[in-house]
Amino acid sequence: MDLNLRAMSAWITRAILLCSLIAGLAWFHQSRSTRPQRIDLARAEGRLLMGNGAEPATLDPQLATGSPEHHLFDALFEGLVATTVENPDANGPGVASHWDTSDFQTWVFHLRPEARWSDGKPVTALDFVWSFQRILSPNFGAEYAQMLYPMVGAQEFNEGKITDFSKVGVQAVDERTLRITLNGPAPYFPSMLKHYSWHPVPRHVIEKFGRMTDRDTKWTRVGNIVSNGPFKLKEWRYTHSITVERNPHYWDASTVKLNEIVFVPISSDAT
C-alpha cells in the first residue's frame, strides 16, 4: 500500500510539473506574440535589417575586394552610372545625368549640378580624375586597379611604365564634364561603371588624414568618412553591426524610402 501511495505521489508530482511547464510555455508564447519583435520595430521605424556575410575589411572602396563591402558601398557611394529601381541590371543615371558616345570608345559624361558629398560639397569631374589616379597609383597597391585597365594608359600607369597621369584616358573638360577614352570600342562600358572601383572618393577628406597613396588612414572612420550615395555612415560596432542613415545631400534623396540600414555580419550559413 505504501508503495502504491509513493508511486501515485510521484505521478501527481510529475503531472503538476508537466502542467506548470505547459502553462509556462503558453505564457511565454503569449508574451512573445504581444511584445513587439525587433523586425516589427525596425519596420515601423523605416530600418532594414540585413545579414551581410563576414565583417567588412575596410570602408575604402578603392581597397575593398569582398561582397560584404560591395553591399555597403551600394548604400554609401555612387558612380557615374547606377542601377535603376525597376531593374538592378539596367544602366541608370548616377552622378552623371546622361552620357554621349559616337564610337563606343570615347565617352563623355555630364555630371548633375545637384550631386553632393554627404557634407554638402559638390561632386565634380575633378573628383573622378583624382580618384582614378589614386586607385591606379602603383604605390597605393589597389587590387581592383585592373578594373580600370580598359582606359587608355591605365595599365601602363598602374605598372609604372608611365608616370604622367595626363596620358591616361580621363580628363575633366570642366567641373561638370568628364571624358573617358578607352583602348577600343566597348558598348558595355556604362555597366562597368557601376562597380565600386569606379566610384569617386572624397579628396578633400582623404588628404586631411594623409597622402593620396596612404592606406588604411582614419578617413573611413565614423565621424570622418564622407560619401556621395543615398546613405551615410552612422555607426560601426565592430563584429556587431554597421548602421547607415539617410543622406540628406544625396541628389535623389526624395526617392529614398528607408531611414536606416543595419548591416549585421553573419559568417555562418547555418546562422
Give the helix/strand layout.
Blueprint: H1 2-34, H2 38-45, E1 47-51, H3 67-76, E2 81-82, E3 92-93, E4 96-101, E5 106-111, H4 125-136, H5 154-158, E6 170-174, E7 177-181, H6 189-192, H7 203-206, E8 231-237, E9 241-246, E10 260-264
Instruction: Indicate the overall shape.
Output: elongated
Mean pLDDT: 90
Structural class: alpha+beta
- Which radius of gyration do the C-alpha atoms yield? 27 Å
Strand content: 15-25%
Largest sheet, order of strands side by side?
Answer: 1-10-9-8
Q: Give a short account of the largest sheet.
A: 4 strands, mixed
Distance between the termini: 55 Å
Indicate the low-confidence ranges by residue numbers: none
Total of DSSP H or I helical runs spanning 4+ residues: 7
Pattern of helices and strands: HHEHEEEEHHEEHHEEE
Report on this model:
With about 270 residues, this protein is α+β, with helices and mostly antiparallel strands. The protein contains seven helices and ten strands. The chain has helices at about 1-35, 40-45, 65-75, 125-135, 155-160, 190, 205; strands at about 45-50, 80, 90-95, 95-100, 105-110, 170-175, 175-180, 230-235, 240-245, 260-265. The strands form three sheets. It has a four-stranded mixed β-sheet with strand order 1-10-9-8. Strands 4-5-7-6 form a four-stranded antiparallel β-sheet, covered by helices on one side. Strands 2-3 form a two-stranded antiparallel sheet. The protein is elongated and about 90 Å long.
